Amino acid sequence: MKFKEAINTIEIIAKAHGFTTKKTQYSEFPVIESENMIFNIDGDKHFNLEERTLTTTITARASISRMGGNPTTEELFKVANEIQRGAVLVDSINLMNMVIEETFDEVYERESER
Fold it and tell me: Which of 72, 66, 83, 89 minimizes the C-alpha distance to 17?
């Protein structure tokens, strides 16, 4: 899979589960936005200097933000729904076992576009 394909796939999966994404200068992967959860999309990188390639295995993780105060039952159900959708989102991304394979030239070109 190429880098742009992986990014597009993550964005499609996030949207399918009711979340939006945004690009930031701090991460090469899209940030999944949520009111009550924090998502992390990470890439485990392996360089092959002989073949001049980079292989990145993508994993997704999430944590739940604290909900303070005295929420109503409706607010609790809303958060529970968001947590369930977030868990399915993380599972969907991880079950795909996404691996990005790029040459050093492709990485350089991609990074110079940022």
Answer: 89
Alpha carbon distance 31, 98 (integer Å): 17
Q: pLDDT per residue over 62-108, tens digit each?
A: 999 877 789 999 999 999 999 999 999 999 999 999 999 999 999 99
User: Is residue 26's pLDDT more than 90?
Assistant: no
Helices and strands in the chain: count of H runs, count of E runs: 3, 5
**Which tokens hold the place of 65?**
């933000």
Half-sphere exposure of 18 (CA within 13 A, CB side): 13
Strands 37-48 and 27-33: unpaired
d(C-alpha 6, C-alpha 79), whole Å = 28
Type of residue at 12: I
Q: Burial level of 78, CB count in 10 A (0-12/13-18/19+)?
A: middle
73-86 per-position pLDDT tens digit = 999 999 999 999 99
Q: Kindly state the tokens that stand for 70.
A: 């005295």
